[in-house]
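User: Here's a protein and a ligand (magnesium ion). What would the complex look like?
Assistant: Let me lay out the input and then the predicted complex.
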Amino acid sequence: MTPILQLDSVDKAFGGLRVTSKVSFSVMPGEISAIIGPNGAGKTTLFNQITGHLPSDAGAIFFRGENIVGRSPQQIVARGVGRAFQIASLFPDETVLDNIRVACLSRLGQTRKFWRSVLDFQQATDDAYGILASLGLDGQAHRLAFELAHGDQKLLDIGIALALKPTLLLLDEPTAGMSPDERHQMRALIKKLWKEFDLTLVFIEHDMDMVFGIAQVVRVLQQGALLAEGTPEQIRANKQVITAYLGEDF
Ligand SMILES: Nc1ncnc2c1ncn2[C@@H]1O[C@H](COP(=O)(O)OP(=O)(O)OP(=O)(O)O)[C@@H](O)[C@H]1O
Ligand SMILES: [Mg+2]
């Protein structure tokens, strides 16, 4: 099987600060995997490089065999790379439904002609309700996004990413700022979405229950470099990872 995503010696520096350094790994289609590492290790930066939000200084990033370094975020999304943010990026004054519907419309707009706009609106509305149901947010469709609880705003951000029908979905700390109960629900939901939408899924997390509970592969970044890669069991037993990040309790 060929990888769906392949990073080949990817680098990024801000001024003199090297934030990602010679990062290479391959993600297989259908895989669910985690990226972990201390604060400031370069995890979000690496996502920004994959999605084109930050230019890479060196290296190549292949998505379905094509080097996407130098492509714009819009071009990369259109190729099937979706992304939810560490801090949810919503239209706060729009309804929950409209937040998703706009994303559905923009996807339809890429492939359809203008005269279909009325049909597209109906299609986008149907698609948006389908996604809301999958997220368990259908009861809140007509509330304004800013009125939602923090956990539901994170869900909505994932919904916006799903509206673009990604093949590869990147989630940056989906459980950040959540209560233990909400985290528990988010874990189950992400696993469900991974299956239901037939995704390849890569998530960044500090919640080790989520990492070791649902990832098939775990990659550890430390000071911008890939320190280790393996199954949850291998990573848990890795002395370097224990010293750098996990501590002795794992
Ligand atoms: N746009 C930027 N300009 C300058 N420095 C930046 C920029 N973005 C990130 N950095 C720096 O790069 C380093 C890595 O940041 P990054 O956000 O990628 O870390 P992270 O692993 O996602 O951390 P966290 O777990 O806290 O989210 C940090 O030292 C950060 O201050
Ligand atoms: Mg981050």
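Summary: Residues 1-80+166-250 form a domain with the Rossmann fold fold (CATH 3.40.50.300).
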